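forwarding from the other thread:

> can someone predict this with zinc ion?

sure thing
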Amino acid sequence: MTEILKGISGSMFAGKTETLIREANRAEIAGKNVLVFKPSTDDRWGIKDKIKSHSGAEHDAFVIKNATDVADFLSSDTDIVAFDEIQFFGPEIVNVVQALLEADIRVIFAGLSLDFKGEPFGSMPELLALCDEIDKPTAICTEIINGEICGANATKTQRIVNGQPANYHDPLILIGAEQDYQARCPKHHIVPDKPSTGIKL
Ligand SMILES: [Zn+2]
């Protein structure tokens, strides 16, 4: 492997997609051929779509179902492959990333490091371990304490269901419930019923 793997990891609202789009744009200005992929969250795949940051930046991207689908889009001109929301790909993503590097294609990815429970998301631990470079942008904790916004660096994603912190055992799909996600610092990330490590120190 001669090429570099770069990861962008953090909570929701940390600007991960924004950073990925900036990297893709910079590479394109330098004359590189960049392919951007995002996982299908519904039945659509193989189509051209966009990735969008919360601040409005966008970049063309292909929607794929399995990470191995990238093979259908590669050409001898491909210099860089970028993945957004990489945490949603299945475990095959780890080998696909390594195969791209072996083929002398640079890889950049953006992904949520932790799920709402504060536990490592999908293949992110392995992917981050393989990275040559990691960016960990943070969001701002928006918890209101005595009428004021906390404002600390947020590294966690708080899931809110019907106005309350989501329970550890809540299913990811809750029919009829109002759901929201907020960026939180470690102190204000609350997961009721999260099992303790059981280690007494
Ligand atoms: Zn906070």
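The helical segments are 16-29, 93-102, 124-130. thats all i got for now
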